[in-house]
Amino acid sequence: MDLMERNARVLALKTEAGRLKDRLDIMARQLEGDQDAWWHITTNLPETVAEVNVRPALGEARQTALALATVIKTLDALEAGNQQTPAHPVADPADEVKAARERKLKDARARAASQS
């Protein structure tokens, strides 16, 4: 994973963590009895129509808390990876093939020189 891809993942996870935290705050208000957090009436409908949404809080809070914990754990792992530099740089397979060919050519030239 290159640095740009890792940074994009970290940004996406931080954004999602913020959203999850906002949802958990609303659910905490619901569970504490805040009436406005329990239901919502949509007012941009015709006068004869009302839409009331009741939000089930406890199960959703539990699932959201697990999702947030997972996001935070993933963020920690990605950010730890950003701070660490490998002891040995990761070799490009093409460079390894090139080096092997050069060794073989050098060995072949040495054998040919010793036979002449």
- Rg, Cα atoms, Å: 29 Å
Q: How far apart are the first and last residues' alpha carbons, in Å?
A: 50 Å
Shape: rod-shaped
Low-confidence stretches: none
Short overview:
By secondary structure, this protein is mostly helical. 71% of the residues lie in helices and 7% in strands.
How would you characterize this protein structure?
With 116 residues, this protein is mainly alpha-helical. The chain has one domain. 71% of the residues lie in helices and 7% in strands. It has four helices and two strands; from the N terminus they run H-H-E-E-H-H. It has helices at 3-31, 35-38, 58-83, 93-115, and strands at 39-42, 51-54. It has a two-stranded antiparallel sheet. A hairpin with an 8-residue loop joins strand 1 (39-42) and strand 2. The longest helix has 29 residues, at 3-31. The radius of gyration is 29 Å and the shape is rod-shaped.
